[in-house]
Design brief:
The protein is of the alpha/beta class and 194 residues long. It has one domain: 3-Layer(aba) Sandwich (Rossmann fold), CATH 3.40.50.10320. The chain has five helices and six strands; from the N terminus they run E-H-E-H-E-H-E-E-H-H-E. A six-stranded mixed sheet has the order 2-1-3-4-6-5, with helices on both faces. Helix 3 links the parallel strand 3 and strand 4. Helix 2 crosses helix 3. 34% of the residues are buried. Zinc ion (ZN) binds next to helix 3.
């Protein structure tokens, strides 16, 4: 599958700050040069509170407000959300909160919805269907961003060796369908306008 629809702005819904950096760096670093990109970090506003103790509707409203703000000029959006097949309850809560938030905008202003994976947390039941190849330099950048912003989160399975192993695994997984790429980041297309 390929992303075949042009979008004008990117929104990454990130349960915690590090999730978007780990899972969707490609959309933060490459894309934002020519497309406005917003990362909405859900847990920031609630400090240490577990997200599953909050009413889901509160989180849904925050996401919906962000979408509303971004499409107020009728821009087409690409939205990245965490998958439901994840060991972390906060990630699952945010996934569930995203679904009703995107619904009203889906056919007018949302061109694509993608799920991104969170290393060490997303489960093997999750089946991606869209793959981006990355270079060693891209992994360097991911690592640098993580070390700078979330140094405490950087141990196993988020150390350099694990990151390379993870992206190499997906590189091997997609080889039959793609040209050979050493490092591949998996995504799952949930919705794409034809
Ligand atoms: Zn997280």
């Amino acid at each position: 599958m390929r992303l075949n629809y042009e979008w004008e702005k990117t929104l990454i819904v990130s349960p915690h700050g590090d999730d978007a950096i780990l899972g969707a760096t490609e959309f933060i670093t490459t894309d934002c040069d020519y497309r406005p990109t917003n990362v909405l970090i859900i847990a920031d506003k609630y400090s240490d509170q577990k997200l599953d103790t909050l009413p889901l509707i509160d989180i849904t409203r925050r996401i919906e407000e962000k979408i509303q703000e971004m499409v107020s000029d009728k821009s087409q959006l690409l939205i990245l959300i965490p998958p439901h097949e994840d060991r972390n309850e906060d990630h699952r809560v945010v996934h569930r909160a995203c679904l009703p938030a995107v619904r009203p905008y889906r056919h007018l202003y949302i061109s694509t919805i993608l799920e991104y994976s969170i290393i060490g947390s997303t489960m093997s039941e999750w089946r991606p269907n869209y793959f981006m190849n990355i270079s060693k330099a891209d992994i360097d950048l991911k690592e640098k961003l993580m070390l700078k912003n979330y140094p405490k989160e950087m141990g196993y399975p988020r150390d350099r060796k694990s990151l390379e192993t993870f992206y190499r695994y997906w590189g091997l997984e997609v080889t039959p369908d793609y040209e050979f790429y050493e490092f591949v980041v998996p995504y799952k297309i949930l919705f794409m306008k034809g």
